[in-house]
From TrEMBL:
It comes from the Bacteria. Keywords: Signal. Residues 1-23 form the signal peptide. This is Phosphatase.
Length: 516
């Protein structure tokens, strides 16, 4: 792998680990709370054993830039390795574009992998080919900002034929803030990409999409079920369902969530009055409420505004303050009915019903995905101070990764939400939102003439469990939006130079030994 040596790098790049910052000390209280429980000792021991292994052909820093994360000492079994940073040149001329976000990994023959990754602010989708040890070989762009319906490509999920059905893999990329707010369907194996092609699927509906997550084909046999997040102030979970088999993404119906129950204001639960929109203030922390998904008729032919007007004024869909990413529990098909999603909130001090952010658990009923139960399991809002599930350090949860035993939620401090004294963090909780621990933080360091402030420093994109594919338990890929590192050399790396090109860096990191 070649390295692009930018002038800004002449200031000096240190590969030494940074000392623990004051912001990290502020998070130690979370770990202390976990110490009371002491239930995860066995997992910690296993992770510790992994950390004692020597670096191998798979686990070493492949980029000139060290991994821009600081792992919490309590996760002493977790090691981070840099895979790729925007300054690295792969093959002849590939560089990863600005602000990596959603992603998916699939096998490429017997000896390699294809990693498809959204570059959010670059409005592009990259394809990176890796060898069997996750070493970068080559790369290209499946979509660039020259496409007619260009948009920020946010979270994304790989539809894998072995898991979700059909005879081909498809990358589902969530688009938001564009002329056409649709999910783009990209062929990850296409021989010759057309980066300005029309890949939008209006059948899933037009929203400010934040991920489109298909459930495994056997979770609801004979049905295609895809869940998404509507990242609008007043948005909510989206559900697409077709009863025409497990691989029909064009002839189904589109639904949005409405709660059937709300809080009575005194810790109890009452039926939600008809003809009213309810919001996050109607859910008490750790209480569980009945919910349903209501259909938006003819959704494929409605614009974003028409869709929004219908679910607000006709369906009275429940309002969340900027719903973001979601994921389902792994392990078996039944577990996949347990959905977790992040609601990022409006930002510190904005005075809304959710400023700091919340994390929810949605359990879909076994006989139908159109009904279920919703629980707010974690809250960063001071209105919940003193309650079980309150997490004071939390600032704008965004991405979510769920394994068989844990929920990982990643921060995107936005709207001025750096009010908890630390850069973006990743947390681990159990499946009920308890025993919350800080896993790691974004490392803010000198990479040249860049700001060292935690404000606007960056966020985390997708965290993807790739253990089964690479054959090493506890192996994850983590995308990092390094917003504090800006340089004109990072613009137009997708091959299209247009107005508003982002100059912020990206990094992809391998995590080893993270509990599943």
């Amino acid at each position: 792998m070649k390295i692009l040596r930018l002038p800004l790098l002449l200031v000096g790049l240190s590969f030494a680990m940074l000392s623990t910052s004051c912001s990290e000390d502020g998070l130690d209280g979370i770990n202390g709370k976990d110490g009371i429980d002491g239930q995860n000792g066995q997992d910690g021991k296993a992770g510790e054993d992994a950390a004692l292994l020597l670096d191998t052909d798979m686990f070493f820093d492949k980029s000139i830039i060290e991994p821009l994360v600081t792992v919490n000492p309590s996760f002493n079994g977790v090691k981070a390795y840099s895979l790729l940073t925007s300054v690295d040149v792969v093959g002849d001329n590939f560089q990863i574009a600005s602000t990596v976000d959603g992603a998916g990994l699939i096998k490429d023959g017997e000896d390699g992998f294809i990693y498809v990754v959204n570059c959010e602010d670059a409005k592009a989708i990259a394809r990176l080919r890796l060898d069997k040890n996750l070493n970068p070989i080559s790369g290209d762009y499946l979509l660039n900002s020259g496409v007619a319906d260009y948009s920020r490509q946010c979270s994304g999920t790989m539809w894998e034929k072995e898991i979700h059905g059909g005879d081909k893999d498809v990358f589902l990329s969530a688009s938001e803030e564009s002329v056409s707010n649709v999910v783009k369907e990209i062929d990850p194996r296409i021989e010759t990409p057309n980066p300005t092609g029309d890949y939008g699927n209006k059948a899933l509906g037009q929203f400010l999409w934040e991920n489109a997550v298909p459930l495994p084909k056997n979770t609801y046999p004979g049905k295609t079920v895809i869940l998404g997040g509507n990242d609008l102030d007043g948005g909510q979970p989206i559900l697409y369902m077709s009863e025409n088999g497990d691989v029909d993404r064009t002839n189904g119906k589109v639904y949005v969530l409405r709660t059937k129950q709300i809080s009575d204001g005194a810790g109890g639960i009452i039926d939600a009055p008809a003809g009213e929109r309810h919001d996050e203030s109607d859910f008490d922390l750790k209480n569980t409420y009945d919910v349903e998904f209501l259909e938006i008729p003819n959704a494929k032919n409605l614009s974003t505004n028409e869709t929004s007007n219908y679910y607000k004024n006709t369906l009275f869909a429940t309002s969340f303050v900027r719903m973001e990413d979601l994921d389902y529990q792994k392990g078996n098909d039944e577990n996949a009915r347990n959905i977790y999603f992040a609601v990022t909130g409006k930002g510190a001090g904005k005075g809304t019903v959710n400023d700091q952010g919340n994390v929810y658990k949605l359990v879909l009923d076994a006989d139908s995905p159109l009904t279920g139960k919703l629980t707010k399991i974690i809250s960063g809002n001071d209105s919940d101070k003193g309650k079980d599930g309150y997490l004071r350090p939390l600032q704008s949860p965004d991405n979510v990764c769920v394994t068989e035993n844990y929920v990982y939620f990643q921060e995107d401090p936005n709207g001025g939400t750096w009010n908890r004294g630390h850069a973006a963090s990743i947390y681990q909780s159990d499946l009920q939102g308890n025993n919350v621990r800080n896993v790691l933080d974004l490392k803010v360091k000198s990479l040249g003439n860049n700001s060292l402030s935690i404000v606007e420093s960056g966020e985390f994109g997708a965290l993807t469990d790739v253990s089964d594919k690479v054959g090493v338990p506890g192996t994850f890929l983590l995308n990092i939006q390094v917003k504090y590192w800006q340089d004109n050399a990072f613009k137009a790396l997708d091959g299209h130079d247009g107005p508003g090109e982002s100059d912020r860096a990206s990094q992809i990191v391998i995590l080893r030994g993270l509990p599943q």
